[in-house]
């Protein structure tokens, strides 16, 4: 890897506990042995990267290899987050400065997914999905305007996904029975985006499952009654015709 050659360097934050920076590396790179990420808080967008500026041990993040072997990941855990805060970063590879970067956490928020999903059938036959926000005071995101997306699909047909946007403040959503097919298992998940910090949607939440029982309704009975009645009428007509032609003598 040539000094100064860094690919796909980016940072995201949950805006509560951590700021995570990651970058792409060639195969077989040992991130914790070959890289160091120096960082410093800055409220005035300074761009000085002198050697003495990045010299404090408590301002060094030792990266780790990500789940994908071709990425390094470094997690910074700030004491607080505020809108005016910027981090000045300097990435070193084997002691050589490679990359300088400024990141403002408020501009790269990727919120945590909603939690504690629950679903139950209600009296009208629909299914009520509820969840909880993943932030609570004193988090900066707690109580902030948030929008959600709900997606659900038949477990047996995972590519046929329905996605519903919720553009109002709510922590529940009613899945109508008319949008479902009876006798199938369904899977549902939720994600969120904070309108004041719209850079990224959260990951999709943990999934919950429910089963839409096959119950015969009055509407079903009506739908079945019409074709059955027609078939019966036709059958009786045919029987009467054959009986009539068999027992009535031919008249020349």
From TrEMBL:
Q: Give an example GO cellular component term for this record.
A: external side of plasma membrane
Which Gene3D superfamilies does the protein's record reference? Immunoglobulins (2.60.40.10)
User: What are the residue boundaries of the Fibronectin type-III domain, all occurrences included?
Assistant: 113-220
- Single Gene Ontology MF annotation: cytokine receptor activity
What family name appears in the similarity comment? Belongs to the type I cytokine receptor family. Type 4 subfamily.
The function of this protein is: Receptor for both interleukin 4 and interleukin 13. Couples to the JAK1/2/3-STAT6 pathway. The IL4 response is involved in promoting Th2 differentiation. The IL4/IL13 responses are involved in regulating IgE production and, chemokine and mucus production at sites of allergic inflammation. In certain cell types, can signal through activation of insulin receptor substrates, IRS1/IRS2.
What is the recorded name of this protein? Interleukin-4 receptor subunit alpha
Q: Which organism is it from?
A: Cochlearius cochlearius (Boat-billed heron)
């Amino acid at each position: 890897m040539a000094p100064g050659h860094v690919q796909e360097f980016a940072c995201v934050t949950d805006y509560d506990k951590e700021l995570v920076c990651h970058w792409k590396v060639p195969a077989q790179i040992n991130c914790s042995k070959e890289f160091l990420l120096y960082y410093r808080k800055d409220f005035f967008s300074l761009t000085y990267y002198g050697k003495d500026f990045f010299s404090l041990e408590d301002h060094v993040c030792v990266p780790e290899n990500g789940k994908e072997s071709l990425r390094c990941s470094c997690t910074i855990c700030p004491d607080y987050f505020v809108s005016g805060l910027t981090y000045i970063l300097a990435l070193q590879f084997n002691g050589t400065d490679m990359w300088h970067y400024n990141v403002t956490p408020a501009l790269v928020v990727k919120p945590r997914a909603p939690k504690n999903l629950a679903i139950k059938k209600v009296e009208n036959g629909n299914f009520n999905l509820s969840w909880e926000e993943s932030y609570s005071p004193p988090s900066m995101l707690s109580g902030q305007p948030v929008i959600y997306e709900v997606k659900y699909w038949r477990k047996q047909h995972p590519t046929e996904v329905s996605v519903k946007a919720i553009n109002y403040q709510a922590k529940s959503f009613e899945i109508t029975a008319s949008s479902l097919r009876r006798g199938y298992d369904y899977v549902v998940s939720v994600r969120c985006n904070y309108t004041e910090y719209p850079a990224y949607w959260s990951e999709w939440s943990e999934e919950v499952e429910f089963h839409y029982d096959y119950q015969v309704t009055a509407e079903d009975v009506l739908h079945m009654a019409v074709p059955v009645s027609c078939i019966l009428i036709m059958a009786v007509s045919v029987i009467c015709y054959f009986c009539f032609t068999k027992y009535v003598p031919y008249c020349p």
